């Protein structure tokens, strides 16, 4: 493994119109104005041009599929680094229809790897803690870089497959790649299908939040800005061939998150509905990010989940025009997929 301490000058960001990708583009454009940013995004249901509206004149935006080998090759040859966020990212969708997850998360990743291999371009692969499976409740155990892969569902299986391709292309073809596996993100521009924005927008609309099953499942929450600062740090200073785990010690069960949201909206603690549980629902995620902190000096800046949640609620209140068009279709999809009150 080699350590590179270089700042790229021209970066291709895949999935830059999605939640984390868009926040990453904002971060780079605002913090590193000398870095040229090219975004490649297929604008699936999860991508939104409006997420890049305020930085639109300062980036190049290409609408296209990461599985389009010709397009990907043309774009990759013009940059000195690729940061790969594009994915099908929602577990519930992967249970209803796994096919797009195979195409984007596996074949799309393969297509990017072939291009960075051909052009000798530095590659950072954004992945998830879900590749490690889940952990028991109330256990001191957390995921580390050496935890064996054990994905539970179609989404995490395809993300695990993508990670394996990256490792193989690094070893067999000398691709200069790093991987990061992060825990659950929250913050602005997250699609209303996901847990926190779904409940915030429900509450804004006077609808009761929806809790899957008993709500004892634990997620390890991190603010999206902390995730993105870590990704940039790994890209600029990480060791090629390495995996870095990103997490902010933010373990909370879903019931606690709903209780916090109800309190923020001034609603009674029991004003939520328990609904059909997710099949194969992972019990607990928890990330040990001490290697990243020790080796690259990264620390999260959002240390108080309640503060982060409050600013996220404010963002959704102030940006209704951003999420409103997706809300009806998202709730219809949940009903179509059989969500019912318990
Ligand atoms: P998202 O669903 O909000 O955004 C995905 C983006 O990728 C969208 O803009 C979509 O249009 C684009 N896209 C999808 N298929 C594409 C294709 N074939 N070609 C080009 N673009 C395509 O996802 P997100 O939550 O921002 O996640 C980004 C990445 O981070 C994913 O790789 C995900 O696995 C990973 N991740 C997410 C979280 C989280 O909590 N959201 C945590 C850890 C890791
Ligand atoms: O751990 C990282 C992963 O976090 C990322 O790789 C995924 O892309 C991202 O979507 C997220 O996966 P989860 O499945 O954990 O996130 P989601 O927001 O779908 O659900 C969070 C928890 O909340 C989970 O335990 C299911 C539960 N849930 C979800 C929804 C949408 C509810 O109780 N009610 C809901 O309405």
From TrEMBL:
UniProt-listed GO biological process terms: nucleotide-sugar metabolic process
A Pfam family this chain is assigned to: GDP_Man_Dehyd
NAD(P)-binding domain sequence ranges: 12-310
Enzyme class: lyase
Entry keyword annotation includes Cell cycle: no
Top-rank lineage group of the source organism: Bacteria
Record keywords, A-Z: Lyase, NAD
EC number(s) reported in the record: 4.2.1.46
InterPro entries: dTDP_Gluc_deHydtase, NAD(P)-bd_dom, NAD(P)-bd_dom_sf
Cofactor(s) annotated in UniProt: NAD(+)
Single Gene Ontology MF annotation: dTDP-glucose 4,6-dehydratase activity
Recorded catalytic activity of this chain's protein: dTDP-alpha-D-glucose = dTDP-4-dehydro-6-deoxy-alpha-D-glucose + H2O
Family to which the UniProt record says this protein belongs: Belongs to the NAD(P)-dependent epimerase/dehydratase family. dTDP-glucose dehydratase subfamily.
Listed name of the protein: dTDP-glucose 4,6-dehydratase
């Amino acid at each position: 493994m080699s350590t590179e301490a270089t700042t790229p000058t021209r970066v291709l960001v895949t999935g830059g119109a999605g939640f984390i990708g868009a926040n990453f583009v904002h971060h780079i454009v605002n913090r590193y104005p000398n870095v040229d940013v090219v975004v490649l995004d297929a604008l699936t249901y999860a991508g939104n041009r409006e997420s890049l509206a305020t930085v639109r004149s300062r980036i190049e935006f290409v609408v296209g599929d990461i599985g389009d080998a010709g397009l990907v090759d043309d774009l990759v040859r013009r940059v000195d680094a690729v940061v790969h966020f594009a994915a099908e990212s929602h577990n519930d969708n992967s249970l209803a229809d796994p096919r797009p997850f195979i195409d984007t998360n596996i074949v799309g990743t393969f297509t990017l790897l072939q291009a960075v291999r051909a052009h000798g371009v530095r590659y950072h692969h954004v992945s998830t803690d879900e590749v490690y499976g889940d952990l028991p409740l109330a256990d001191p155990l957390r995921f580390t870089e050496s935890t064996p892969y054990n994905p539970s569902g179609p989404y995490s299986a395809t993300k695990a497959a993508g990670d394996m391709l990256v490792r193989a292309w690094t070893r067999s073809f000398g691709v200069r790649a790093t991987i990061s596996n992060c825990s659950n993100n929250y913050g602005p521009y997250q699609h209303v299908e996901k847990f926190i924005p779904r409940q915030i927008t429900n509450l804004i609309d006077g609808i009761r939040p929806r809790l899957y099953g008993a709500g004892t499942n634990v997620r390890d929450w991190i603010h999206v800005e902390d995730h993105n600062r870590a990704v940039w740090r790994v890209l600029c200073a990480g060791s090629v061939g390495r995996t870095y785990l990103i997490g902010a010690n933010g373990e909370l069960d879903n019931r606690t998150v709903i209780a916090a949201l109800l309190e923020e909206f001034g609603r009674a603690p029991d004003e939520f509905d328990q609904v059909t549980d997710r099949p194969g629902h992972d019990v607990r995620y928890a990330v040990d990010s001490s290697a990243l902190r020790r080796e690259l000096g990264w620390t999260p800046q959002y240390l108080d989940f309640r503060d982060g949640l409050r600013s996220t609620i404010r963002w959704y209140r102030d940006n209704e025009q951003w999420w409103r068009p997706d809300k009806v279709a998202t709730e219809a999809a949940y009903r179509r997929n059989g969500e019912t009150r318990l």
